[in-house]
Structure formats: C-alpha cells, structure tokens
Amino acid sequence: MHFTEPLVLQSGASIANYTLVYETYGELNADRSNAVLICHALNASHHVAGLYEGDPRSTGWWDNMVGPGKAVDTDRFFVIGVNNLGSCFGSTGPMNTNPETGKPYGADFPVLTVEDWVNAQARLADVLGIEKFAAVMGGSLGGMQALAWSMQYPDRVRHAVVIASTARLSAQNIAFNDVARQAILSDPDFHGGDFYAYGVVPKNGLRVARMIGHITYLSNDDMSEKFGRELRSGEYKFGYGVEFEIESYLHYQGEKFSAYFDANTYLLITRALDYFDPAAQYGGDLDKALAGTRAQYLLVSFTTDWRFSPECSRAIVRSLISNGRQVTYAEIDAPHGHDAFLLDDERYHEVVRAYYERIWHEIGKDGRS
C-alpha cells in the first residue's frame, strides 16, 4: 500500500511517498469486526504465518500461533501483518531511494518511534476499512505497539494482547542496545550509514550486534542446558578462535543475521525501543498514561525472561487495574527466556487460545444484538 500524504513523526520530521507491505490471512467478515492486527518485533516482518509457494524454508515467524485451527484461528479471524516503516523487508526504509535525492535514504532516514509505527498502521487500517480491531497483538517490541494502540486509538481496539513486553526499557536494556549500535557504528564499512554507495555491508558490526542481542533473548538455564561448557573439539586449543559450542552458536546466529538484515534498520528499531515510555509525559505515572484506554487486555510474561521480566508486565497490569480495565494476566514458568514468546509452550498457547475463544464469542454476541 502506497501513501503520498506526509506522515508527521514524533521527532517533528515527516515522511511522504512511503510504502507499507502487509499480508492478510483469513477473511474479513461482513461487519468487519473480526480483524486482528499482529505487530512484529525487531527482526521480524509482515510474514506472520504460512509458507510462500515454492519456498519450504519460508515459514512465518509466528506460524505456530497464527493459522487455521491455531490459537489465533484464521478460520475465524482476519489477521493482518504489517512490515513497519523503516524496516528492510519491503516497507520504505533506509535502503530505499529518497525521492528528493535519487539515492538511498541511508543515514537521512528519520528516526522513528513506536507511536509513529502505530500511526502508520492506523492509516493502513483506514484504507482497508477497519474501524475497530477485535484485537491488536504483539510480543516484545510488538507488545509495545499493541499497548500503544490501546492508548493512541482507544476506540479502535477491543482487546490488546501484550506478550513478553514492557511499558519502558530498563537502563540495562538501553545499555545493551547501545553496545549493539556501537558495534555497527564503529564498523569501518558502515560509512556513516551510507554504505550502500560503497557496495559494502557492515557485516562485522551486524554480527556482533546480533550476538549481543541473542545473549539477552536466552535464559541462563536454557543456555546451560543447550550448550553448557561443551567444547567443539573436546579439548582446549589455547587460542582465541571459536572453541565452545555456545561461541559457535552465537557466531552462526550473527553470520546469518548479517546476511539479511540492514544495519540502519537495526539502529532505527533499537532506538525506537529505547524511546518508548508513554508515562514520561505524565511525570512517570503509568496510571495516568493508561487512564484513557478502553480496551480489555491479555498480558503474558515468562519467568526466565530477564530482558522483559514478569515485573514489567505486572507493572502494566497494576496500572490497568487501577484504571478499572478488565485484565487477564498469565505468568508462564518456562525455561527459554525472552524467546519463549516465539516457542511452543503448551500452557502459553492454551492461554492465548482461550482468550481468542472469548473474543470470538464476543464478536458473535455483538453481531446478533
């Protein structure tokens, strides 16, 4: 979907003539009441579920959650996945040509916020004729977007499903993001963000950034169980190459990431994570920030998620309850750390399934009244 009208951003900058790439699953019902928006996290995209024809490796990033008969049942719901502005998977971003210069945006692409993404998504919903979503759902950074939707467009969200997320990053989280960005910014091939003109990619910086991030997505227990102190060759080599299995795994993840992700997009998205703090304009009072919400909520956290800990979700729950909102909260005892929101824990999926069953019955009841 192409948009010509400028989108005014929180920074005061604006962007016009941009494109949002999206995918839909299922069918929109007659009264357009069964639409569900799925918001993606850092390195995901609009491709939420299913396979692309002819590509058996193209499984959607939340395929275990979304699809026919799954927790978010596309036999019932019309699900929309949108690739956020600034990403590198089809929507307009730093890799694309700036119409004012005829060259890639690169470092000139404006800094974005979670709120900017929500406003862009709302424009897409307008064109699709969806006045109100049955649910807006996301995990991690996607959960921030779901929460922001319920604040920015309270009359357009029936339910907000916020998984493994937070209302603001901790100082430790901001620190990890900055170290990852510095790895990219200090890569000689970055060229101040304009590396496209040089025909290079700051792969070393991207590798290190991904390795840092991946450490934070796993729990210590999960890492210990999967890798422990296992050596690749069974003995020390007394050097500085890859010797431990955990090192091999991180190097593999970094190499894979550097082959498909854009460095400028990584900077943009991690900065958007840092900036998200809806309570800031209310003196840090989250109760006041959520006072205008009208949605019902499902929040899910995972006990070993130390990046977005259960306490982050509980803080949101407390503020919602203080405002008289209807809230369901599940804290899942799972060993997988932050990545648990992408995995197949049966208890977690059953919580989501039961919640969407309730949404489905609400839609049916409203449709009959």
Summed up, what is this model?
The protein has 369 residues and is of the alpha/beta class. The protein is 35% helix and 14% strand. It has two domains: 22-82 and 132-168 and 279-367, 3-Layer(aba) Sandwich (Rossmann fold); 173-271, Rna Polymerase Sigma Factor, Chain: A (Orthogonal Bundle).
Descriptive account of the structure:
Transfers a succinyl group from succinyl-CoA to L-homoserine, forming succinyl-L-homoserine. Homodimer. It holds the Pfam family Abhydrolase_1. This protein is α/β, with parallel strands linked by helices and 369 residues long. The chain folds into two domains: 187 residues, Alpha/Beta hydrolase fold, catalytic domain (Rossmann fold, 3-Layer(aba) Sandwich); 99 residues, Rna Polymerase Sigma Factor, Chain: A. Helices cover 35% and strands 14% of the residues. It has ten helices and 15 strands. The strands form five sheets. The protein has a seven-stranded mixed sheet with strand order 5-9-6-12-13-14-15, with helices on both faces. Strands 1-4 form a two-stranded antiparallel sheet. A two-stranded antiparallel sheet has the order 2-3. A hairpin with a 4-residue loop joins strand 10 and strand 11. It is globular, with a radius of gyration of 21 Å.
Number of beta strands: 15
In DSSP terms, counting alpha (H) and pi (I) runs of 4 or more, how many helices? 10
Strand arrangement in the largest pleated sheet: 5-9-6-12-13-14-15
The CATH homologous superfamily of the largest domain is named: Alpha/Beta hydrolase fold, catalytic domain
Name the overall outline.
globular
Which percent range fits the helix content?
25-40%
Nearest-angstrom radius of gyration?
21 Å
Q: What is the top-level CATH class of the largest domain?
A: Alpha Beta
Structural class: alpha/beta
| Ends distance | 34 Å
Strand content: 5-15%
CATH topology of the largest domain: Rossmann fold
What letter string, H or E per element, gives the SSE order?
Answer: EEEEEEEEEEEHEHEHHHHHHEHEH
